[in-house]
Write a structure and sequence with these properties.
Layout (H helix, E strand, L loop, with lengths): L5 E7 L5 E9 L2 E9 L6 E6 L14 E7 L8 E8 L2 E11 L2 E11 L8 E5 L12 E6 L2 E7 L4 E5 L4 E6 L6 E13 L1 H10 L3
Antiparallel strand pairs: 1-2, 2-3, 3-4, 4-9, 5-6, 6-7, 7-8, 8-14, 9-13, 10-11, 11-14, 12-13
């Protein structure tokens, strides 16, 4: 398989705002980058997965060796399915867009047979995240009245921000053998209050 191979999935609304995931083959696994798409502007990178290497049994992000893009129907955005393994553990993940509200849902699972040193997803945040913005949801980027946010769904993951400005999403612990699962969402949020103020003041 070509070491420089890339695959991309994205979703856009009627105003050309959207989200994009770019998968990039690095050595034995697929890394990925999440972009914010805006009209008349280059894609803005928001998150980059932090990858490990083939010597690590418990890498900082799931070691995904297989990637498959699928479409539920012709009008739906592509769905990315991933599989991987390291040591005695096996990972699977799906990257799926939802249109209303626009968001990317990432659903990850890891089957373990022994206590892990670490299981979860680690991202490098492109823009600095101040401590007062570190809450649920976490604000990753802002432009006018639109914000890109990250959150975990149904409290099945813990969120933490370390000193190196990396977002870590990890599942609740379970005694092996077990299947650990964590789900998180990257979404575009519109601040209607700011939009209303802009209309009254004539700002665009």
């Amino acid at each position: 398989m070509n070491a420089s191979r890339q695959e991309t999935i994205e979703i856009l609304d009627e105003n050309q705002f959207g989200l994009q995931v770019q998968f990039q083959r690095l050595s034995d696994r697929w890394a990925h980058h999440i972009f914010w798409l805006k009209p008349n502007a280059p894609p803005q990178i928001v998150l980059t997965s932090v990858e490990g290497n083939s010597c690590e049994h418990w890498p900082p992000s799931p070691p995904m060796q297989e990637l498959s893009l699928q479409r539920v129907n012709q009008n739906a955005p592509p769905l990315a399915m991933m599989l991987g393994s390291a040591g005695t553990a096996h990972w699977s993940a799906s990257f799926e867009f939802e249109a209303s509200p626009m968001r990317l849902v990432v659903d990850v699972a890891c089957r373990i047979s022994q206590p892990p040193a670490f299981v979860g997803s680690r991202y490098r945040i492109a823009a600095p995240v101040d401590s007062h913005r570190f809450q649920d949801p976490i604000e990753l980027a802002r432009n006018g009245n639109k914000t890109v946010i990250a959150s975990a769904e149904k409290c099945d993951a813990s969120r933490s921000l370390d000193d190196s400005h990396e977002l870590v999403i990890s599942p609740l612990s379970q005694k092996p053998p077990a299947t650990l699962r964590w789900k998180y969402i990257i979404a575009i949020k519109t601040d209607d209050r700011e939009s209303s103020v802009d209309k009254k003041t004539g700002r665009e």
